[in-house]
Amino acid sequence: MLSGIRNEFIKRYNLSDTPSLGLNGALGIEIIYIGGRTFVYVAGQTDDAITAFELLYDGSLNSIETIIDDSNLELNGASHFASISIGTSKYLYVNSSNSDSITAFRVESDGSLTFVEQTVDDGTGALELNGTEGRMAIGTSAG
Prior knowledge:
It is a single chain. The protein is mainly beta. The chain has a domain at 26-120: Lipocalin. The chain is built from no helices and eight strands. A four-stranded antiparallel β-sheet has the order 1-2-3-4, with no helix packed on it. Strand 7 (101-107) and strand 8 form a beta hairpin. The termini are far apart.
């Protein structure tokens, strides 16, 4: 052990899945900072859901909301996130392997998510989102 460095983890908080949390098959995690607050987003791949939490100072997670796949929102197989800030707004993107989609949300100042847009593979080969599951990244350019 290096001098002054701890080599152990200290458990601060434990969270178990419930039907309303949508954490079954938790895969992707994204952390977004807004106005001194820390928000944590988890993709529940098996539950086809996105769950938003606020990370509190004691290490606990305060549940904000869970968004679940339905006939209007294609989140079947939600797996990974990417986020970006544009001006003063923050956006969260999630890919869903079974829905063959990428969904965009605006992150509000309280950590809640507002649906913006969804792109779904239409099967023509133009988008190639079939089975999208891996990590995502967002590139920007000035022009």
